[in-house]
Amino acid sequence: MRVLSDATRRRFGFLMGAGLVAPLVVRAHDGPHLIEAGIDGFAFVPDRLVLRAGDTVRWTNHDIAPHTATDKAGGWDSGRIGKGENADVTFATPGTYEMVCRYHPKMTAEIVVEG
To answer: What is the pTM of this model?
Structure first.
């Protein structure tokens, strides 16, 4: 039976640990994604999203009242989203977007689109 030194065991453990962690740290963006978000209790959930250019956000309205997901700068608008309905918006351009509901201006959120 071969006996490993403490240094060899430490190196082996380090390499194994690095091999297990590396796929979590280095991950290429594998194309556009659909990000599910909600509207619940007169709030966007979550109230901050970080996504990549080309991704689509789908808002589902869980409230009784209708809502919108609207860019404060006027670049995009989901249109009316009724109870149980959803609306998709695709984000092609990197940037930070402040969002509001046209019907309920106190409902705000932020979307960060990375390149």
So the answer is: 0.73
